[in-house]
Amino acid sequence: MIDFAPAVPTTTTGASLGDEIARLSAHIEAATGRLFALIREFDASEEWIEEGFTSCAAWLGWRTHIGPGAARERVRVAKALGELPLMDAALCAGRLSYSVARALTRIATPDNEAVLLETARHTPAADLDRLVSAWQRADRAEALELADEQERHARRKLWLFPQPDGSWRLIADLDPEVGARLDKALEAAEEEQYGIEADPDTPLDARRADAIGRVAEAALGKGLRAGPGPGSGRFQVVLHVSAETPECDTCDTSSHHEPPRIEHGPYVSAETARRLACDASGVVMTHDRDGNVLDVGRKRRTPPPALRRALDHRDRVCRFPGCRNRFCESHHVHHWTRGGETKLSNLLLFCRRHHRRFHEGGWTMELDERGEARFYRPDGSLMPPVPEAPALPDQPAEALAGRHDELGIAIDARTATPDWEGDRLDVDWALFTLR
């Protein structure tokens, strides 16, 4: 039995713990830059040939106990950074993450690395991945020339065949418009079945598999709701209020007035009523003491389709810092119960979770004339759009090693070497034993 040393305890809490995580992450990225420089030098020396390996990646996988794919990728990135001095320097200084460097080295050249590096400083890593993918598609299109419409149409195909275990396998190449329609249909069916919030117990591919069954039911006559857009005509809110209640702002379940109530639903606070009405049609019904309807207020509608499309085009995803959820509701910055207008300059996209924060969670926000939003926590402090970059010492790699020494973490040339005796793994025996 291998005796692993216990984790070093820490008494750091709160914001200082987050700062320590950010600093250590930067230390690790800087050390990764130094690691790639060593890999690059080792690859150029061809000492791995003397060790009997067919490639530097094969040696690296053996020597450092990492998988062949990860080893090949590290060698690729290390060699690419040798031709990209600006990115190499940024990684070694802890200002660039390995994840971002790995993505950018697929498209970077000495001519464009400066602009890509500047772009990376202001772009989330997830969006950089999308950028790189699009860049590569464009490169392939220029190199191979896109097939004309007739050739692409001729390549369309779809196979659906049963598997031995009773499941079905689907493989398809679809025309652009057919694929787009199917994607929207799956999005609508998925939202109808699971709601707009992600189900943590059901992965995306499984939800899509369920959604295609719902689309098939609709095609057979069950009827899938029209309009897959997440904010169009999803439901109508009927809000019942007491005539003795002077304003919806004063409604709450602790008041002596009858609190607002959603039709066929529970009593709710004023903020909950506002949130539900933000992205749905709403009707206010006023009642007397005996429950008789005194007035049916005007219907307050969600943004019309053209305005919703403009809002989707501007915001694309939830506007809360760091959130990339595409399934969003429209939020009135100045709510219409307080005189806010349904216009683009007064609307933002929020996923349901963050929408709730700004109604029931005590969060507040401001929106300037350029559409830039500022978010404030319940304690009034500003939530920055991106976290502040951590400060680093002049020699981050040496500082990292010194920190390890202070913590009593001993690292030498054999720390990452596995306790392997050279025997070939018997996969069948291993599966039988482990399972």
Model description:
It is a single chain. With 435 residues, the chain is of the alpha+beta class. It has four domains: 14-144, no CATH class; 178-228, no CATH class; 236-296, no CATH class; 305-383, no CATH class. It is 44% helix and 11% strand. It contains 16 helices and eleven strands. It has helices at residues 14-45, 47-50, 56-64, 68-82, 85-92, 98-104, 113-120, 125-144, 149-154, 176-194, 204-222, 270-278, 305-315, 352-357, 396-406, 427-434, and strands spanning 157-162, 168-173, 236-242, 261-262, 281-287, 293-296, 329-332, 347-350, 364-367, 373-376, 382-383. Mean pLDDT is 77; it is low at 223-236, 245-256 and 294-301.
| Element order: H for helix, E for strand | HHHHHHHHHEEHHEEHEEHEEHEEEHH
The largest sheet has its strands arranged as 4-3-5-6
Radius of gyration (Å): 29 Å
Care to count the β-strands? 11
Question: Features of this protein?
Answer:
11% strand, 4 domains, 435 residues, 16 helices
